[in-house]
Every structure is written in structure tokens, then in C-alpha cells.
Amino acid sequence: MAKEPVRVLVTGAAGQIGYALVPMIARGVMLGPDQPVILHMLDIPPAAEALNGVKMELVDAAFPLLKGVVATTDVVEACTGVGVAVMVGGFPRKEGMERKDVMSKNVSIYKAQASALEKHAAANCKVLVVANPANTNALILKEFAPSIPEKNVTCLTRLDHNRALGQISERLNVQVSDVKNVIIWGNHSSTQYPDVNHATVKTSSGEKPVRELVADDGWLNGEFITTVQQRGAAIIKARKLSSALSAASSACDHIRDWVLGTPAGTWVSMGVYSDGSYGVPAGLIYSFPVTCKNGEWTIVQGLGIDEFSRKKLDSTAEELSEEKALAYSCLT
Description:
The chain is of the alpha/beta class and 332 residues long. It has 2 domains: 6-155, Rossmann fold; 158-323, L-2-Hydroxyisocaproate Dehydrogenase, Chain A, domain 2 (Alpha-Beta Complex), CATH 3.90.110. The chain has helices at 16-27, 48-61, 75-79, 99-120, 134-143, 158-172, 210-214, 217-221, 223-229, 231-239, 244-260, 307-331, and strands at residues 6-11, 37-42, 66-72, 84-87, 126-129, 153-155, 179-180, 183-185, 193-195, 200-203, 206-209, 268-273, 285-293, 296-299. The strands form 4 sheets. The protein has a 6-stranded parallel sheet with strand order 3-2-1-4-5-6. A 3-stranded antiparallel sheet has the order 7-10-11. The chain has a 3-stranded antiparallel sheet with strand order 12-13-14. Its EC number is 1.1.1.37. NAD(+) binds at residues 12-18, 43, 106, 130-132.
């Protein structure tokens, strides 16, 4: 029997990431090849014409799974009945702007969108925040949508996770699909900690630790980490535009694994509400290794954390605590 369509919201849908993301969703990359979708696309009034152009292209592409398109600048219309919300829209930092100015703009955006989701989204709506500062935007959204379970509000660090997989695959000249269980800890910012201490590579003689195969701790503890941390900036420098394609692809990966589950023995990185695991302060949205089953994520427990890693985990947690305080100061 055919499945009922899922309503999927994409905010900032006329932007670069939205333009890359909506055809992926319509093609079944996010929710599976047999799951019909109705796309809800939201953007600001100045982008209304461009948004309508995206809708025209979706119609022209004749995606079999796409059962309807709502293109609107009205947040209530956009949020009504949605079961998945991908929050791509946000206020980007512009030259000369202080961090607090950007935070203040995003706090007001996410407060308004959270209120609309709270009142109008489906009861068990899953939310993924992509717009930066992603962790703290997600925290604000959680605060102002109290009826959405805290486990249903996440932020995107899968992009960083995928970047780490890509760097290891290139370094070892192996298929990226043979590398697994890297971890992104913390903030989707330059303090994030890409950790390979538990990662493995499938070889002809079984799974081997990444650290053993790379055999270069200097690179793994130095250049590898900074490359993943700074990859977004490097792409902007090369492309003169942000990493829209990889962000859209990793947003699909994040939701797909959350909804359909992670393969046995494999974990992924998601920015989720901290319960105090690994000594991370509870109440932050922090990236952890997670497994997913039956539409629920669970933080992987019991991984050893060495002294080098402990400092990295604490440093990114400290930045997130500062961001949280800054965001809350913008509310008063």
C-alpha cells in the first residue's frame, strides 16, 4: 500500500543550499525511494519571486514522489502540518558585524519560527537546524517550541562528519564507504573536534583502526583537524560561494539516518541536546556520536577519551556555553 506523503519544510528555500536541497528531497534521497513528500518552502518576501522560480523548476522536473509544493513567505502556512523541518534560513554574518549582532538577528528569526512550529507543525515533527550558528540557533528554537520533544531538535554536524570521512579516504586512497565511525564533537564552528580514535577502515584483512593505517599522529592531531574545521572557509575562497551542495547532501544524510536508522556497528555525528554524557554540560546542543533506530537517536556510550581529546571536548563546550549566554542575553 502506498505511504501517506510526509510534509517537509525547508526554510531559506530560494537560497543556495535550499536550491540544492529541495530536488534531493523530491527525489527520495532524504526519506527513501518509496516515501512521497509534499514540500513546504519558506523564504523572506524579497525572495518571493526566486522562490516561485524554484517551485516552477520542481514542477518541471516531474518528480514521481513529489505530491505537492507549498511556496510561501508566510511562516504559519509554511509550518502547518510538517513532519520534518530543515531550517536553512538564517541571518549570515556580514563584514563589520559583531558576533552579538549576528546572534541577535538569528535569535529573533528562530524565536518566530519556533513559535510557528510549536503551534502548527505535526505532533512529532523532527527539526534539523542548518543555519549558523547552528547549535545555538537549535537551542533557541528548542526553548520557544516547548511542546516539540527536546530529542526532536537537532543541528547539522553531519557535514563536518562527512568532511572527516572524505579526508581520511583521500589520505589512505580508499573508498569513503569503507571508512566509518569518525566523530565530530561539539560546535559546528572552528572549535569542533574531528576525532578518529575510534574510526576504522574496511580492508581485505578486516577492519583496521584509522590511526594505525595513517601511521602519522602529527597529521591526525594537526592538519587533519584544521582542514575539517576550516573546510567551509576554504570552499568559500575557492568557489566564492558557500558549500551548498555538500551541506544539502549531508542534511539528507542526517534526516535519512535519523528516520530510517544507522547500519549496525556504525555511528554518525549529530548536534543533539546534551544529557551530560562525556562530561559535556547538560542543556547545550552539542555534537556527539549517535546511533539511530525507529526514528530515535541514542548517544554512543563508553568510548575512551584520551587527554588530548578531553581538552578538545572541553574547549568546544566552553565556546557553546559562551554562545548560549550571548543568545540568552539577546532575549532580554
